[in-house]
Amino acid sequence: MAHFEKAKSLNEWFDQRLGVNTLNRVLAKEYWIPKDINFLWAMGMVLAITFGILLVSGIFLLMYYQPNVDLAFDSVNYTIMQEVGYGWLWRHVHAVAASVVFLIIYIHMFTGIYYGSYKKGRELIWISGMLLFVAFSAEAFSGYMLPWGQMSYWAGMVITNLFSMGSLEMNGVVEWIRGDYVPAQAFLDRFFMLHVLLIPIVILLLIGIHFGALRLPHVNNQNGEEIDFEVEAEKYRSGNKAASKVIAFANDFMAKDMFVVAVFLVFFFYLVFWNFGFAMDPVNFDPADGLVTPAHIYPEWYFLWSYEILRPFSKDIGLIAFAFAQVIFFLLPFLDRSPNAVPASRRGLFNIWFWVMLVDLIVLTAMGKLPPEGIYSTIGYVAALVFIALWIALPIITKLEKKL
Amino acid sequence: MKELFILAVVTFFSLLTYWLVEPFAHGQMHAHVDSKSFAYADLPALTKQGDATRGADTFMAGGCIGCHNVKALGMETGMSAKDAAAAYGVNPPDLSNAGAIYDAKFLADLIKNPAHAMSVEHKFDDMHPHPMPAFYGAGGEDIDQEIADMVAYMQSIAVKAEEVTPKMAFEDACGRCHAVRYTKWTQLGEMPNFKYKKDELRFQADVLDAQDAVKAYMGKLPPDLSMYIRSRNEHFLSTFIEDPQSHLHGTAMPRVGVTAHASEQVIEYMKMAGDPLAADRDEIGKNVMIYMIFFVLFAYLWKRQIWKDLH
Asked: What are the tens digits of pLDDT across the range B142-160?
């Protein structure tokens, strides 16, 4: 048994047993963050807070939700929305947070792409982030099934159908996933389990890995400057904080983060109380009915771009394009052949690539919601082709890029 | 300020995306129908001044109370709602407050030609007549005068137009076909609290029978309207109530002919059923906002304090 001195303070007692001072030093006081950053660097904290909001509101909803095809709709829309004190508040908070979290994820992703924060040792940050994106997508989709409204049912029908793999007609796989020929009790039960247990555990693990992947390569900065963290940290420690190019994670970086979080929460609660319609589709306030197909079936806004890559093509090609769209972002650190980890504005062709990609995704998002008719289906088709072409062009244009 | 510029760029693309997937896309998906202010301009204008006293006699002579209750005056057909539904498809409305809930022009045209007033002529013909027989006059010289008298009579026995409550309007105009389970409303009226399970089951069995009758009459069971205030918006509901055909051409749902005020009451009832806590949302929202603005201020002060050594 190791030798333990009698502790003189509570802090020392914990430090002997848990090494809290070391943890505090490594993870906060001497976790160096570049000073040259803007508010986009706070999106990680905004996401962490939003995830916390989802977790807490979800726990409250879980206490009253009934995962049963006959009861689910009313347990949400009557029990939680009307009978449980402040149940409506938790439900609106949960629904709006589930939608807004994707807005922040997309801003976070595009910040990473713009500043080249997936390169030179930061590949695992990007990949773990993309895994989080997939896990959040699965969490959002499974959660969307739970109110058992018309959109839950038909989105569940459409998405599980994808697993028949087009002309391969693997209908057995679809039935295996659903536990039935159509979405029904078994389907609801398993998506309930995924939503409240398995996927949240995966998300928590991935968040740990995502944070961990960040610790050694450090956070990127606004100008892509290569910083000697040892030298700059020494300046900071010696009291010359103003001249140092780094700041401590806590409280320096945290103080700025929390200000951004506070402003974000004003926006968030405005949506929760006065503009929640975008996060709670009207169609899903009709109870699930397998005999009535809604006039328009569309996913939530954050899935629209990939839905639109699936939709304009024939069945098999659409599926291949869809699969391509799902995995291609993972490969970004390897498809970008340029050695420059600097903002896109200084990278010539890549700068154009970035803005075209952003606009293309917005066009795809809009067309994914609009009915696939006439001009909309043509625009969607072209935008989907542009998306694929951009990824094919990426290694070429980045290879041509001059080293700065 | 570079940060403000970045914020402007992020805000621009976020709002653009929002506008495209919400207002724009929904505008493209759903045809916009303008309200016609419940004027019922397609119905013939009333040309005769009605007389309620004469109308009372015509009302009796016309045989209205053969099928319709007028409970306010103690006139009842003696038929249960369930039996009436079985006999006519839909339980005919009690006429106690019809004069206040329905538009006068609509009532007049309804008496003369029910399928026309209700815009369901595509459902009925001579072989399959509307269950309410058209009124061909009660022996008077001028059928329009007789109808005007009856309308005046119905208005005279009804509550004042502004006294029509959400419940009255909904139950009369909508509740004989549509259930609202969140307010315990069924096609046979409000579900009572039963002491014995078997009484409750009997009642529910009766409701199922009434629903079967309505289903047979309408082609499908009209939907439960509990959450319609959230699954459809207020403008949609208002224009749909005014003229169902304008949104859903060929629908079996009749135009019910409510006045603008009664339509507002119907929508109010649907709010009570599906979104009764809307006022709380506003109230609590304001308090949360005040709290959050203080949070922003304190967070900003903390940031300033920490960063004054860093610049």
From this structure: 899 999 999 999 999 999 9
Judge whether A273 is closer than 8 Å to chain B, CB to CB.
yes
In a domain, A20, yes or no: no
Q: How many CB atoms lie within 10 A of CB B205?
A: 11
* pLDDT score recorded for residue A260: 97
In chain B, helix, strand, coil percent, each to 5? 60, 5, 40
Same domain, A217 and A349: no
- Rounded to a whole number of angstroms, the distance from the CA of A362 to the nearest CA of chain B is 6
Q: Are A289 and A389 in a shared domain?
A: no
Name every residue whose Cβ is closer than 8 Å to that of residue B242 and which is 6 or more positions away in sequence. Answer: B35, B36, B38, B255, B263
A1, pLDDT greater than 80: no
Are A350 and A397 in contact by the 8 Å Cβ rule? The answer is yes
**Which residues of chain B make contact with A370, given a CB cutoff of 8 A?**
25, 28-29
Last residue of a domain, one of A249, A279, A297: A297
* Beta-carbon contacts of residue B303 (< 8 Å; ≥ 6 apart): A255, A256, A258, A259
Best mutation target among A114, A237, A259 (most B Cβ atoms within 10 Å) is A259
Token pair belonging to A327: 């995995």
Query: Does residue A104 contact residue B10 with C-beta atoms inside 8 Å?
Result: no
The domain limits of chain B are 34-276, 286-311
Sequence-ordered alpha helix ranges (H) in A194-253: 199-215, 229-237
- For residue A14, tell me if it sits in a domain: no
Mean pLDDT of A150-170: 94
Is A99 in the same domain as A169? yes
A367, A254: one domain: no
> ipTM value of the model?
0.94
- Pair of tokens at residue A201: 């555990």
Q: Are residues A293 and A327 in the same domain?
A: no
- Give yes or no for a contact between B227 and B274, defined as CB atoms under 8 angstroms apart: yes
Enumerate residues 6+ apart whose C-beta is below 8 A from A221.
Answer: A34, A35, A36, A37, A227
Q: Taking a contact as any Cβ pair under 8 Å apart, which residues of chain A between 52 and 71 contact chain B?
A: none
Domain that holds residue A327: 301-404
- Minimal CA–CA distance to A136: which of A168, A109, A166, A173? A109
Task: Nearest by CB to B285, from A78, A273, A286: name it.
Answer: A273
